[in-house]
Structures are given as structure tokens and as C-alpha cells.
Design brief:
Distance between the termini of chain B: 95 Å
CATH topology of the largest domain in chain A: Cytochrome Bc1 Complex, Chain D, domain 2
Structural class of chain B: alpha+beta
Largest interface: A-B, 39 and 38 residues
Oligomer: heterodimer
CATH class of the largest domain in chain A: Mainly Alpha
Number of helices of chain B: 17
Number of domains of chain A: 2
Number of strands of chain B: 15
Helix content of chain A: 40-55%
Shape of chain B: elongated
Order of helices and strands of chain A: EEEHEEEEHHHHHEHHHHEH
Strand content of chain B: 15-25%
Largest sheet of chain A: 2 strands, antiparallel
Chain lengths: ~300, ~475
């Protein structure tokens, strides 16, 4: 450890002198810094060749690294490198990873899926993603729906039936619910009587006399409510006519009304103006059969399998 | 022009090559023993078979794709990360404990930098010869002999480095398969990159950098210094005895017995320089305790050998405390363990080891979580009943598949709906999520705030877990 190893050096100046003795140090940049800088230049040149970089004419230099992906119609597309294609490629990979599960779903019956813990786990996660993308805008994230607009899928009341087959059918073909506006054929008193009768069916406080009159009207041919809702008001699932005797209200916002008279008023307004907004789009054209099958089982699980 | 400008001095000293002389003695034997034991463990452990039902039969296997570490009969999952934290804490405490007692014992005997450097020096000495031969080779111009010997040394260093990297990677897969697929180019790029990085790292750190890693790079060596105090045992040169009044002197004629030397006022150090020649850090211990010293004890072996041949008592260089050496009447060196610091470290080691052991041996064979589905918070059914839904997640940590029974306490069995999964089978190392729903009449629902789920493994009913989940209903 001797002094001869301690290198001593003198700092150079630029050679200029101002005011006689004012000098300027010439401390060059450290060598490692300069070489790192050169390396970044080389890196940039290589980068320009590989990736899209400079504007050129009306377009740009696309670089030499191509990227291939399969688009929605199954065609293999090869383009210059870009992040959109990269995303497509990643999505292709993800679809490839899901494939064995989807094909197992395709090969199994609804009941078999519900018995297989692993497969119903897949349905829970894949179904949730599909539901979020396609169904949640109306039926809400958890399937709880919105009263007066979109049915609740988590309860045990199904307009068109809650079996696997019925849910599957609903998803593929869609539904169109309709109730005529009775305000045009019945007078206000008749509608009030009907509303009181409907309220009585599910145990809401009502006027017994009006309800009795309403009951007669309900089963008469002048109003013909029974035609769809049945004599006892239990509805008909084959045409999507709701059960009026249970605690579930989709169209008339009865749960939100505090007082009994407001509840009756809510029913009255639905009878008077009818309904034509019970429209569920058909998904058979928009989704693959496997996706619809996954969604069927997912929605069936939401309703607690009823 | 340049007058008045300061002189600048280079900040980094050029490395002086260190050629260590080999030595025999207690510490050398200890170091060799530790080296052989550590190498046997590191290089052979991936090849130790261990029967497993659900994984390759390898005693220690870090299964990254499966997200688990298999260590003999113990399977460690990511959620057991607290064990790693405890292990690191224990390791740190042991390091502090040992350093407070006997100085940098880790650096001198156990550190992998020391072990690999020792091994590489041994290779160097086997090919190029003892210290004088190596110095001669270093000084002579490049020729056939130098080229062959230096080339062979570096080649074997590289091979040893490669096998070090390879052995490391073998812990992460089934060793026999991994080795063949490694050489047929079938393993992931990460494996090749890791092997390359460790090969180069070992080659440069143990072949070229050596003691510079300890003096310039390693932080442990630096912060261990602050754990020393005057009672800590460290490798010391007994200057009082070695230098006496008029300093060290060579053992020329008339200076060969202690009596002759005492008359002349010279100490016991005959200035043979062997302690410097054997030092892997290239320092002179007689300059006192210094930061590059890794306390490997080789200078003690060297000096004891010389003292024996001179007929002087051993221990001119020895493990001793600064306090003892500085006192007027030096006593025999002893461990000063009755210090708050040492006892504190010791207690923390014992406590943490007990806790780690308890945590490992009382581990459960499965994990579970019950969460209420909050979208929507509750559901009113057509007959007015109130339903809450739950996600029950069960992770099987055993090596075999297991059935788990799911029950809900305090509500009638008819209120609980589990689909087909009131008893569910979970594959080893996998998780299953079961949807459960509980339906109660509104008056019962209004006073129910919580439900207790009980999950019972079929083969270990005594391990049943209870999970409390909320029940929501606002009329």
C-alpha cells in the first residue's frame, strides 16, 4: 500500500485567461458517462429500425418487427408492431388458455357443470366477466336489477321460468314483455278497483269493497286480466305474465312507496299506462354458444338455483 | 498558466494482487470442515430423493409455477411468507449474537464469498503451485507455461462457477429432468439467464474480486464493525508481547531464545511475515484490528506454527478482547457473554425460534374464507323471506385430495342452500369456491346479525374451522 500507486494528476484549463488571472477549468465528462451516452445513441438507432419511429411522407417508418394476431372473424392479421396488435395477441393467448375449460363446458350438461366444483368455479369467474361486459348495464353488477326497469336475477321469481333451459332460451332469443294500457278502455274507478284487488293479492293494505269489485273485473272479459295473469293472479310463465301474488315487484315501484295508498297508486299507474319496455335483447347472434352456456349457469347460480 | 491549481489524487487504489500461502492448523481445519459441509449441502441437496404423492420426489424443491416451496415434508405456500420473515429475523439475530461474542465469525468461516474464494485459491494453488511459484508466474512474461497454467486455472474456475449456477437452478425443478432439458435447450430463458449470471458472478467475485468484495462491496462487513465492543473477541496481535521495548526482530543468532531477546528488549515476534503471507485479505494483523480483516484465523495458525518451531508459547496472535490486551495484567482470553447485548440477542433467537417452530407445527391442513356477497346486500324472495348469499373459499394444503363439509351453525339445515357442494372435494394445493345461500323468515332475519360457518375436513375432523360472516337485512 505505497504512495507510488496513488496517481496524481493536474487539472487542465481551457487556456483562456480573463482579467489577467481568471481561468477556466477544463474538466471533461467522465469517460463512463460519455460511453454510456454513445451506447444510448446506438440503442436509439437499433430501436428505430425495429419499431415504428419516424414520420415519413404521409405515413411513417413501420420498422422491421411484425406482429400477428387472430381477429374476431378468425383471420390471421400481420401488421407492423403496435400496441393495439399486441393487446390482440395477448387476448388470443388468454382465449387459448380458457379453451380447455370452455370445451369442457360445451361437452357437459348444465347439471354436470353444477356438480363439478372446478367447472362451476370457472363458470363463476368467466361468467362474472361475461355478465359484467354484457348484462350488468341493465341487470346491474350483482344481478339485482332496477325496480321499474330491469328484473332482479337474484330472487326466486322468474317471469319466463328459472330452469336452465328457460334461461338459456331467454338468453338466445331475448324476450319482449307487453301489457296493454287499460287507461284507454277502463274508467278511473274501474282501474282503482283493479289496483286495490291486485294490492290485496300480495297482502298490501287496501279498500275491501273496491278490491271485491276489482276481483270481479279482473276475471271478467271486459278487462280480461285473467287472460294473462290467471284467475288467481299467479301469472303465466310461458308468456312472461308476472305473478301478482308474491312480494316481488318489477314494474310498479311498490317497495319504494311508504304509505299503502301510494302503493296502490303505483299499481294504478301501471294498469292505466300499460307496459312495453320489458325488452331483453337476443344474444344468440352476439355471443358464442359456449359463452351463452356459461352465462346460463352463472345466472342460474345467481337465483340460488330455482 | 497552471500555477495555483490544486492537485487531485485518484480516489481508488489499484489492487495489489494477493498470493496467499497455504497453512496448517486448527482454524484451517475448521474452515475446511465448514467448506466441505456447506458444499455437500449446496451441491447435493437437489439430488436427495424424497417421496411425494403430488410432486416430483425431490427433498428440496422450489416449485415456482405451483407457487409453493417443498422442503422435505413441509409445503410452504405464499401465505406462509411470515415464516420467511421469522427465518430472516433469526438469521439476523444469530449474526448479531455471534458478532458481539466472537467478532466477524460469519465473514471468516461461513460467508459464501469466503468459501468460494477459499475454493478458488485452492484450485489456483493446485495448478500453479505455492505462493513463491505463483508470484514467479505472475512476474514472468507471457509464454507457454504461463499461458497453460493461467488458462487451466481460469477454465476450472469457470467450470466450478457454472456448476454453482447450475446447482442453484436445480432447486427450482426436478433435478434429473431439468439437467437434461437444460443441455438440450428446452428450459425457460430465465433458467439460462440465471445460470449465466451466477456463473459470471461467481467467476468474477471468487476469481478476480476476492477480498475487494469484502472491503468495498459488502455491507455486512461494515455494519458488523459497530457491533464490536471492548469485550468482543477478535483476532489480535499481542503487541505488548510481540514488540516489547524495542520492537520485533528477526531470529538471527543470539536472538533465538526468549531470554536472549528479553535482555535486548525485543519482543517475541521474529518478523517472519508468515501472518501476512497467509492472509486472504492481504493485510498485516500486527498493524492492529482493521476493517478489511474478515477474522478467518489463518494468521493465528501461521504464527502458532512459528512459535512452536521457535519453542515460544503459542498465542502471539490469538482471539482476545481489546479490553484484555489493553490491561496491564493480561489474563487468558475468555468469552464475555454476561452482557445485556449478548443476552438480549440470545433471548430473541430463542423466542423467535420457538415461535417459528410453533407456527410451523401448528399449521392447518387447509385455509378457508367466507365472505358475504354484497351485491345486493340481501334479497327478498317471493314469499317475503330474506336471503343472503356467501362465497366459501377452501384451499387444500395437503398433498392428497380432501373432502370438506360445509355447515352453518344456529340456523335450521333447510335454510342453508349449498347446491351440490354441502361436501366438496378439493384437489391437493388447489382452491375451490362454493356459493352458499341462507334464507330466513323476515322476523328471524331482522334479529340475525352473524352466521357461523363450520368447515370440517373429512379425514381430520378435529381441525374444523369456524368462520363468522355477517347477515344483512334492513326491513
Amino acid at each position: 500500500m505505497s504512495e507510488q500507486h496513488l496517481q496524481s494528476q493536474t487539472v487542465q484549463t481551457t487556456g483562456h485567461a480573463w482579467d489577467g488571472d481568471l481561468q477556466e477549468f477544463n474538466n471533461p465528462l467522465p469517460t463512463w458517462w460519455v460511453y454510456t451516452f454513445y451506447v444510448t445513441i446506438v440503442f436509439a438507432l437499433v430501436y428505430w429500425v425495429i419499431y415504428p419511429s419516424w414520420p415519413f411522407g404521409k405515413g411513417f417508418l413501420t420498422g422491421f418487427s411484425d406482429i400477428s394476431y387472430v381477429n374476431k372473424s378468425g383471420e390471421t392479421v400481420t401488421s407492423h408492431w403496435n400496441t393495439r396488435a399486441l393487446l390482440q395477441e395477448d387476448l388470443n393467448e388468454a382465449a387459448e388458455m380458457q379453451k380447455p375449460y370452455f370445451s369442457k363446458v360445451a361437452a357437459s350438461s348444465f347439471e354436470q357443470i353444477a356438480k363439478d366444483a372446478e367447472l362451476s368455479g370457472f363458470v363463476q369467474s368467466a361468467g362474472k366477466a361475461l355478465f359484467t361486459d354484457n348484462c350488468a348495464p341493465c341487470h346491474q353488477q350483482g344481478g339485482q336489477g332496477v325496480v321499474s326497469f330491469f328484473p332482479n336475477l337474484t330472487d326466486d321469481d322468474w317471469l319466463y321460468g328459472g330452469s336452465y333451459e328457460k334461461i338459456h332460451e331467454t338468453l338466445i332469443n331475448g324476450r319482449r314483455g307487453y301489457m296493454p294500457a287499460f287507461g284507454e278502455v277502463l274508467n278511473a274507478q274501474q282501474i282503482d278497483s283493479l289496483a286495490n284487488h291486485v294490492a290485496s293479492l300480495s297482502g298490501i293494505a287496501h279498500d275491501a269493497n273496491k278490491a271485491a269489485a276489482g276481483r270481479a273485473l279482473f276475471t271478467s272479459d271486459s278487462a280480461a286480466c285473467y287472460y294473462c295473469h290467471g284467475d288467481n293472479g299467479k301469472g303465466r310463465q310461458e308468456i312472461g305474465a308476472p305473478n301478482l301474488t308474491d312480494k316481488i315487484w318489477l314494474w310498479a315501484n311498490v317497495p319504494a312507496a311508504e304509505k299503502a295508498q301510494d302503493k296502490v297508486a303505483a299499481i294504478r299507474s301501471v294498469i292505466a299506462s300499460g307496459l312495453s319496455k320489458g325488452v331483453m335483447p337476443a344474444w344468440g347472434e352476439r355471443m358464442t354458444p359456449d359463452e351463452i352456456k356459461v352465462l346460463t349457469v352463472y345466472v342460474h347460480q345467481l337465483g340460488g338455483a330455482k | 498558466m497552471n500555477t495555483g491549481l490544486e492537485e487531485q489524487i485518484g480516489v481508488l487504489q489499484e489492487r495489489l494482487p494477493v498470493f496467499t500461502r497455504s497453512v496448517k492448523g486448527v482454524f484451517r481445519r475448521f474452515k475446511t470442515g465448514v467448506l466441505l459441509l456447506a458444499y455437500a449441502m449446496f451441491f447435493l441437496l437437489p439430488w436427495l430423493p424424497w417421496y411425494r404423492a403430488d410432486a416430483p420426489s425431490q427433498a428440496v424443491l422450489f416449485d415456482l409455477p405451483g407457487r409453493r416451496f417443498l422442503v422435505f415434508d413441509l409445503t410452504v405456500y405464499p401465505q406462509d411468507v411470515v415464516w420467511l420473515a421469522l427465518l430472516l429475523f433469526i438469521a439476523a439475530s444469530v449474526l448479531f449474537f455471534a458478532t458481539a461474542l466472537v467478532g466477524r465469525a460469519f465473514c471468516g468461516y461461513f460467508c459464501f464469498q469466503t468459501l468460494w474464494t477459499d475454493f478458488f485459491i485452492w484450485i489456483e494453488a493446485k495448478i500453479q503451485g505455492e505462493r513463491p511459484a505463483r508470484i514467479r508466474l505472475y512476474r514472468q512474461p507471457w509464454g507457454r507455461e504461463k499461458l497453460l497454467k493461467i488458462g487451466a486455472t481460469h477454465l476450472i474456475w469457470l467450470l466450478a462457477s457454472f456448476w454453482t449456477g447450475m446447482s442453484f437452478v436445480l432447486y427450482f425443478g426436478y433435478a434429473p429432468d431439468l439437467l437434461t432439458s437444460f443441455f438440450t435447450g428446452q428450459v425457460a430463458a430465465a433458467a439460462y439467464i440465471t445460470v449465466a449470471a451466477i456463473t459470471l458472478g461467481t467467476y468474477f467475485a471468487a476469481g478476480h474480486m476476492r477480498e475487494q468484495i469484502c472491503t468495498y462491496v459488502c455491507p455486512y462487513g461494515r455494519f458488523q464493525s459497530v457491533m464490536y465492543d471492548r469485550e468482543t473477541l477478535a483476532v489480535h496481535y499481542d503487541a505488548q508481547r510481540g514488540e516489547a521495548l524495542h520492537g520485533r526482530a528477526s531470529a538471527r543468532s543470539g536472538m533465538r531464545t526468549r531470554e536472549e531477546r528479553r535482555v535486548r528488549g525485543n519482543g517475541d515476534c521474529i518478523d517472519c511475515g508468515l501472518c501476512v503471507q497467509v492472509c486472504p485479505a492481504g493485510i498485516d494483523i500486527r498493524d492492529g484490528l482493521q476493517y478489511p480483516c474478515i477474522s478467518c484465523g489463518l494468521c493465528i495458525d501461521a504464527c502458532n506454527g512459528i512459535m512452536d518451531s521457535m519453542g515460544f508459547p503459542r498465542g502471539l496472535i490469538r482471539y482476545d478482547s481489546e479490553a484484555n490486551l489493553a490491561s496491564a495484567q493480561t489474563t487468558a482470553p475468555r468469552l464475555h457473554w454476561k452482557r445485556l447485548k449478548v443476552i438480549g440477542y440470545g433471548v430473541s433467537i430463542v423466542l423467535m425460534t420457538i415461535y417459528l417452530g410453533y407456527s410451523i407445527f401448528s399449521r392447518s391442513s387447509f385455509e378457508d374464507a367466507v365472505t358475504q356477497i354484497r351485491q345486493p346486500l340481501f334479497i327478498q324472495l317471493s314469499n317475503g323471506d330474506i336471503r343472503n348469499r356467501y362465497q366459501v373459499r377452501i384451499t387444500n394444503k395437503q398433498a392428497v385430495a380432501e373432502f370438506y363439509r360445509i355447515q352453518v351453525k344456529g340456523v335450521p339445515a333447510s335454510a342453508v342452500e349449498l347446491g351440490n357442494f354441502s361436501e366438496v372435494v378439493v384437489k391437493p394445493g388447489r382452491s375451490v369456491t362454493v356459493l352458499a345461500s341462507v334464507t330466513l323468515p323476515p322476523e328471524v332475519a331482522a334479529r340475525t346479525r352473524e352466521l357461523t360457518f363450520v368447515i370440517t375436513p373429512r379425514t381430520r375432523p378435529e381441525e374444523a374451522h369456524r368462520d363468522v360472516a355477517g347477515f344483512h337485512y334492513t326491513p
